[in-house]
Model the fold of this input.
Amino acid sequence: MTQDTSRSFSSGVNQSGVRDYNERLLLSMIQRHGPMPGSDMARQSSLSAQTVSVILRSLEADGLLVKGEPQRGRVGKPRIPMALNPAGSFAFGLKIGRRSADLALMDLTGEVRAQMQIQYHFPDPDKMLTFLGEGIESMSTALDPEQRKLICGIGIAAPFEMWKRHDIIGADDRSYDSWQGRDLVREATEFTELPITLVNDATSACYAENTFGQGRRFRDYAYFFIGAFAGGGVVMNGAVFEGPRDNAGALGSIITRDAEGRPAQLMDRASIFWLETAIREAGGDPAQLWSRGADWATFEDQLGPWIEMAAQELAMAALSCCAVIDFEAVLVDGAFPAAVRSRLVRRMSELSRDIETIGLFRPEFAEGSVGANARVLGAAYRPIASQYFLGSGGLTAAR
Done:
């Protein structure tokens, strides 16, 4: 069912024939705000109490909602909050990065039930398919037979045009050619009947931030995700905006200048590959950069200069974004430790004060809070959200 993402999610409709919209509305309200009694949902959605009651009973019968403990202390009957049932639905998410891939199994509430990772020098499409197929089989065994029937799909998050910039990451021409003409979605259907969706990896991270992270605080913001290459996303009116060609928020492609003053892209200056190269040239081993939970303190001689350069570039890019859309905030997250993220955002904010902003309203600079796992979380939640929640790709809930 295609939804108009420009519509407010705070009001429902009572007419017949739109029950699917109202079901999604109530599920989205619970997903966004947590367990809620029907009386609160009726008041906030403008639906009648009877309509809400009927829908909630149906969703509970379908296994999507569960009753919470009665809330006593008021006059009249106790209020019973309704919550999402974690076992109501499941989905797989695959993040394909340029140095590592992650596969996760997620439940209806967004909790990860299982996750695995592989690392490599360059992603090989055949190995990605093997990793996905074997991972699905392995993780499915953690569910009982009835729960396996509730797996609703697979989300894949990957950089668009994987074969480009291979010279920067050190891949040879054979690796470069291996992605040309490959359709992983079609090829994966040879070993699974689950529906599969493909989304840009940075956009997927933006979805995760908007659903689970700091993005819930803001209505309109620009989002930067710093991975192997920098990317981003755009959130407007509480919804991730992908654009007609699914490429909105390609913030890593913003034009800047390199050290010699030649035109370059933001991804050339504010990406972890720059840091990887600096560490390798200093005689270090940058493998830790691509491991979840690794400590980057041993790379401080290279990390400090990288933060200074990346913060300057990101500050200018962020203000440029605000010249196009009046964003209230700019959020930054990435595949790095939380301490690195804090230093980067703090320095961005400091440097932005030295940049002339006549005609602009300064945005709030804020840290994202999902972290390195954002891309795989967004990928895994996308199939669930597209079935049960409102918003762009299903991943934006009621406000």
